[in-house]
Amino acid sequence: MITAMKKYTFLVFHRDYEAFLTELREAGVVHVTQRAAGLVEDADMQALIARRAELQHILKQGAPDQLIQEQADLEQRIAATLKEQARVAIWGDFSSKTIAQLSEAGYTLHYYSCPKSKFDAEWGIQVTENGGLIYFVTVGDNSAVTEDATEITLTKSAAELQADLDGLNGLLAAQKARIEAWALANINQLKDELKSVEQQIDWKEVTLNTESGADGALCILEGFCPVDNTAALDERLNALPAALYYESEDPQPEDATPIKLHNNWFVRLFEPLTGMYGWPNYNEFDPTPILGPFFLLFFSLCIGDAGYGLLLILVGYLIHKGKLKIEMFDGMGPIIMALGVGSTVIGYLMGGFFGINIFQAEWMPSWAKVVMFNNLGEGTTGKFMVAGQPYDVMMVLAILIGVVHICLAMVIKAIAYTKRFGFKENVSTWGWLLLILGGLITAVLAGLELLSPEVTNIVLICIGAISALGIYIFNKPGRNPLINIGAGLWDTYGMATGLLGDVLSYIRLYALGLAGGMLGMAFNQLGAMVLGDTPNVGTWIGFILIVTFGHVLNLLMACLGAFVHPLRLTFVEYFKNSGYEGSGKKYKPFKK
Q: Do 20 and 60 reside in the same domain of the chain?
């Protein structure tokens, strides 16, 4: 949920303004209103921002650019030397010094490669044959060699290049030690400087967002404070000896009120996902309480394997405890564990465990299979009969989840838009909600035979009539009815095509889970083929390597798909149908 805010306006005598800002920063609860003017043009501000970027860059790579570039140059020279060594190794061991002496004595050596079919033994001395090519040497006159041969330049032998490599590797080791020593001596100091620069930037932002009044005698500042912190802030402000006047009020719709989310521990795990799209506006609903559970469900369906879920729990735990260091997942241990728990539960219900179909496994107790999805539908086939045709249970469930998700989005849109703009401006929204949700509920009740055919017809006629009035007649009160009808028809076209595509998008939940399960099963079969009927040490090693590599690769690909596609279903299908804008600004208080 979104934390309620109070808007503050401060008027401070200019001589007391610095003391006031110091106290405001100590309080650490006021988000200062940002003004576009002045921030970009201020030279001091730009210098601080540039220094912050420089410090962040140095801290990220662990050393100044010069030291890093010197290391990169050495690594590049080593790579080039290794490549040259591989090129000349085919010529065997030779001495470049001896070759130079022969050249001085008038015996110039020329080196060539030529396709075997084009080689003439009279051209020179054959050194070796490799890959269908003949490598040969001519001494002195090489005029007989035709254009079918390619001349090769040799400077050093493989052994001489190895000596160069040994020297370069020694220089690289020394450079790495130099970088490490520099980091030990300077990193902490740079971190302290970065904190200082960031505080100077925060201070500078506040001063640049300050307006002046009464010919510069007064400083005027606006900001926002969470309602829960206003009492403590007022107490601090009232105790100030500075010449200060302030007032607080509820934010207005036109105010750029910052957003501070207040959710329970579970929902907080998914707040970064909301931030990836954009924070809600102050007069919107926080989408995270809906986003969190559905993202967990979507991710788990895409993984579809209890074994992979257990691995995610382990990885998340190790990251959370600092035992496993992965920079991009820093601080994400709890959410990875939560996703792992969901994947374990859903994977078990889907009957998958490291590519093994545990529903069909004889060693799995029958009582443990009762809750699995394979028991849904017709018998234990895992199929639903729809219009006389069998459909996979998971595919039907994915579509049903999509219907629920989109209907929930439409309910939230109707409520949110009515709260923001009033019922009169959202008659059409409620009309569509009544038509779609009311029609679905009526169809379900009729399918369960809770409504008779006669009552069903009456209900559907009433729903259709009321919805039609809202969609085609009263969608824009005060406008020409003919224009309303035309707008309603256009809206109908958009809803009919858009909703169908949105619902079908949820089939990806079924497809990704199915693909991951089949790929895991394929790796198991490959491992079993290597193991054979009479396994030995070698076949067991091959089996372990294939299965381990295959499942790690499959898990990585599954996690990528399970992250991207649920985000798409949320950011596109759900947010579009819920009317979520996500253009709010995160609450960032002025503090140390």
A: no
If asked whether residues 249 and 138 sit together in one domain, one would say: no
Helix axis angle for 507-531 and 537-568, nearest 10°, is 170
Look up residue 383 and give its amino acid: K
What number is the average pLDDT over the span 387-411? 84
Q: Which helix (H) or strand (E) holds 386?
A: strand 383-386
The residues with which 561 forms a beta bridge, in sequence order, are: none
Based on the domain organization, do 25 and 146 belong to the same domain?
no
**61 shares a domain with 195:** yes
pLDDT digits (tens, 9 = 90+) for 497-541: 778 888 888 999 888 988 888 898 998 889 888 888 888 888 898
Is residue 242 within 8 A of residue 36, CB to CB? The reply is no
Residues 55 and 192 in one domain: yes
16-42, pLDDT tens digit by residue? Answer: 888 888 888 888 899 988 875 545 567
CA distance 439 to 462: 10
Confidence of residue 80 (pLDDT cuts 50, 70, 90): very high
> Is 197 inside any structural domain?
yes
* Torsion 140-142-144-145 (CA) sign: positive
Q: Which two tokens stand for residue 41?
A: 């043009």
469 and 369 in contact (C-beta within 8 Å)? no
CB 521 within 8 A of CB 355: yes
Stated length of the chain: 592
Per-residue tokens: 460: 């559907």
Please, which pLDDT band fits residue 12 given cuts at 50, 70 and 90?
confident
Q: Tokens standing for 204?
A: 């500078």
Q: Is residue 586 part of a domain?
A: no
Domain-located, residue 79? yes
CB 6 within 8 A of CB 227: yes
Whether residue 177 sits in one domain with residue 57: yes
Residue type at 308 in one-letter notation: Y
Residues contacting residue 258 through CB under 8 Å, at least 6 positions apart = 5, 31, 224, 282, 584, 585, 586, 587, 588
Say if residues 340 and 300 touch (Cβ distance below 8 Å).
no
Range of the domain at 29: 1-34+223-258
Phi (first) and psi of residue 412, to 5 degrees: -65, -40
Largest CA distance in the chain: 113
| Contact yes or no for 471/432 (Cβ under 8 A) | yes
Specify whether the CB–CB gap between 250 and 37 falls below 8 A.
Answer: no
pLDDT of residue 388: 63
Same-domain check for residues 30 and 173: no
As a whole number of angstroms, the distance between CA 551 and CA 347 comes to 15
Alpha-carbon dihedral 207, 209, 210, 213, rounded to 10 degrees? 140
pLDDT per position as a tens digit, 382-393: 666 665 667 777
Number of domains the chain is built from:
3
Which amino acid is residue 48, in one-letter code?
Answer: L
C-alpha–C-alpha distance, residues 470 and 523, integer Å: 56
Specify whether 62 is located in the same domain as 187: yes
In a domain, 16, yes or no: yes
| C-alpha 120: how far from chain center | 61
Q: Provide the phi-psi class of 332: left if phi over 0, else alpha when psi is between -120 and 50, else beta.
A: alpha
- Residue range 284-307: mean pLDDT, rounded: 92
